Amino acid sequence: GIGIREVLLTSGCPGTEAKCIVRVEECRGPVDCGWGIPISEGLACVKMPCIYIPPENRFKYVWKMLIPNKTAHILPNDSAIMEVCRDTHSITFQCETQENGNIIASVKYTVYATTETETKKSRRIETGQSRRITTDAILVFVLLTGVIVTVGVIFAMILMILHWAVVKSIWESKSGQDNQDKKLANKSSLRNME
Fold first, then answer.
1. What pLDDT does residue 188 have?
2. Which UniProt keywords apply (predicted)?
3. What's the pTM?
């Protein structure tokens, strides 16, 4: 297909530049560019562009309506952009960009019928809503869990403050018992040494 490429120089550039552009030139690649995306798509009509580079008028554009198991129907439109209104069934279009009688690029578009567009739109909405519901449920669960844990910690701290004397006596009794155990251990070790 047609395109533009920059030719870069990686040594010998002016100043301290590591890379510099030497020239910009047209390049050619595979002719079949596959399936294109319309530049605008509404419920009633679709605008589709051919592949081109400026100036647009240097190329010839051939639009075809592709019919399964039949030869393509060439349309009278010869502009780079074609607008098509939706029909009762899907239609596939192809645009060939030609220069000097040679095809240099080709792109295809499928214009879906009005009913198919509405069906696809409702599927997207349904899928988006189900994802949103799942995400919302997870967020609510995490939020509730966080609130419950926070309330529990605050409740435990309030109980400790209110019953500080009991907590303090438990700690002192444990530390006092530990001290007595240490004294007994020290006495027994002294007896063993004698």
1. 58
2. Membrane, Transmembrane, Transmembrane helix
3. 0.48
